[in-house]
Design brief:
By secondary structure, this protein is of the alpha+beta class. The chain is 29% helix and 27% strand.
């Protein structure tokens, strides 16, 4: 159960001399700060250019010896009266997409500690540990072989808003890319399970006092606040979900386009207008049908994009949905939404009384949650919109 608390991480970088950038232009007196809201904020003075919308990258070694590269810099405001040597606050402001910085020397075979921050995903751990002098369930350990050395830790002292915890593991520096792939799989599962776009913006790598490295990507500034279909607030809820679903997710990730499918799920989950929620759910099911027919059944499309049943016949949407349900062990599926999908696509709205419309949305929402969890071989509880409570997957019928 060994782990390290998240260390104090540098979040401001400065360079007072001239920096040459693209096309021979240059800037000076650069200050780059990772703000609490996650933005990489830039302030600097310029010699030979300044245009709103112009994008550029910069490289420098800052005053503390950090070798730094900032990518995707864009100007947001310009004070035309600014000249070199005046107060930096009165000069040019901008934002950047990503920042990479390192200090010290490291060999690829050296063992390092790796910390990866999680934002926008409240959760509780399974194993108790002290945080801010309070004993709380903080630590989650995983069983699948690839991720058994990775821990997810609740609680963090850091400058970023909405930071809920961090992944922690130790490995050789050369193995970090492999672990990034493992965490990417978990990241996609966390999006589905939380009903949010979970962020993992910052990676901090350390080898005692000899080497430190920061990898930061500024992510979205808008937050989704899905309630979550998995009981992440209870000890054991998140670990059971990941342990059960990790290997099935890897198996079907490419075959069923699960990254795209989960994106539509989060958008559907957070849509406030029923008609839009229904459209997104329908698009999700269309996508799932397409990947299933193409990659699992190996059906060939005709020139119009319909999958061929015989040389003269094609599979209908309902036919393919029925095959999906059979493939993943559903005794009976839900395809009543197909007629509503046709209506909203062709007319632009669902012409039903509001209470009926809400019930249709709830039923479609619950069915999609249930179907995706069945594909992932999950056997725990999920949140039912229709029943307004957590129910066991095994108790669901449609």
């Amino acid at each position: 159960m060994d782990f390290e608390e998240f260390p104090l991480v540098k979040n401001d970088f400065s360079f007072s001399n001239e920096i040459r950038i693209d096309k021979g232009d240059s800037i000076s007196n650069l200050i780059a700060t990772i703000e609490k809201n996650g933005i990489i904020k830039l302030k600097f003075q310029q010699y030979s250019f300044a245009e709103i919308g112009q994008s550029f990258n910069v490289n420098f070694i800052d005053e503390d010896g950090w070798d730094t590269r900032i990518e995707g810099c864009n100007l947001t405001s310009i004070n035309r009266g600014c000249t070199v040597g005046k107060d930096i606050e009165s000069c040019i402001c901008g934002k950047a997409h990503s920042l990479y910085s390192k200090q010290g020397i490291l060999d690829n075979n050296d063992e390092v500690s790796v910390f990866k921050i999680i934002r926008n995903m409240p959760f509780n751990g399974d194993i108790y540990s002290t945080f801010n002098n309070i004993n709380i369930p903080r630590i989650i350990e995983f069983r699948p072989i690839e991720i058994k050395n990775i821990k997810l830790i609740n609680g963090i002292n850091i400058f970023l808003d909405n930071a809920n915890g961090y992944f922690y593991y130790r490995c050789k520096y050369s193995e970090i890319n492999n672990f990034d792939n493992y965490i990417m799989h978990m990241h996609n599962l966390l999006d589905l399970g939380s009903g949010r776009f979970v962020e993992i913006p910052l990676t901090y790598i350390a080898q005692k006092e000899n080497y430190k490295e920061i990898r930061y990507k500024a992510e979205q500034e808008e937050w989704y606040s899905g309630f979550g279909i998995i009981e992440m607030h209870l000890p054991g809820g998140l670990s059971h979900y990941i342990n059960k679903c990790y290997e099935p997710y890897k198996r079907y990730r490419a075959l069923l386009g699960l990254e795209k499918i989960f994106t539509y799920y989060v958008l559907m989950y957070n849509a406030s207008i029923p008609d839009i929620k229904f459209v997104l759910g329908s698009v999700l099911m269309e996508g799932l049908k397409y990947f299933f027919a193409k990659n699992i059944k190996k059906y060939k499309p005709n020139p119009h994009g319909y999958f061929k049943k015989t040389s003269n016949e094609t599979w209908s949407f309902r036919d393919l949905l029925s095959q999906i349900y059979t493939e993943f062990g559903l005794i009976k599926g839900y395809d009543e939404f197909v007629k509503y999908r046709d209506e909203i696509i062709h007319t632009g709205h669902l012409d039903y009384p509001w209470p009926d419309k809400i019930e249709m949305i709830k039923r479609l929402h619950d069915f999609i949650s249930f179907l995706l969890l069945k594909i992932l071989e999950y056997d725990g509880k999920f949140y039912s919109y229709e029943k307004q409570m957590y129910i066991n997957v095994s108790s669901v019928t449609f």
